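Continuing the series of single-chain predictions for the mutant panel. This is the parent chain; the variants come on the following pages.
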Amino acid sequence: MTTLAPAAHRPAVLADTLIPRPTSTAAAWVHTGALIVAGATFTALLARVEVPMWPVPITGQTLAVLLVGATLGARRGGAAMVTYLLAGLAGLPVFAGGTGSLAAIATPSFGYIIGFIPAAALIGYLAEHHWDRRPLLATAGFGLATILPFVFGVPYMGFVLGQTGIPVSFALLMKYGVTPFLLGGAIKCASAAVSLPLAWRLVGHPRSKK
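Parent structure:
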């Protein structure tokens, strides 16, 4: 029968190394909440790094998702993306172009934002198991996490465009939902795969041998 390891022995992520968790329960909740809000805020800031395109813009959001997930871990990284999504739906100008409202649900790009949640959780899980400390594993992990927003975003985009009367085909989905993002996605993935192992070296932690 498999049991969870005690909290003290669970793999630490970068955030817990830079800002150790408080020992008291109340302070630990505040610490966790602050990190989640910081992750959502960072994503909102990189959403402003934008190349306008139709129907989905190119933004810095995906890089933020990768870095936030890897730095905070699976639960807090996923929670940061949920917070980001809910903040936008509540009307805060956190989405691309400084937008935010319930109307975002009807936009072709909203499916990608939904995909940010499992993407951050996945890379956070892998980071908890030290994938972010070795360049090759980091590259593989960030590559996998980069794919997830497309898994959600491309079908969602097709559905929304179809509702507007635009004929939707596989070629159209690839042309507007995948191809424009391949180069940028590769650059973001490589950037994250270089920065996280480097960050671990700077804080004095050797590469995991796991």
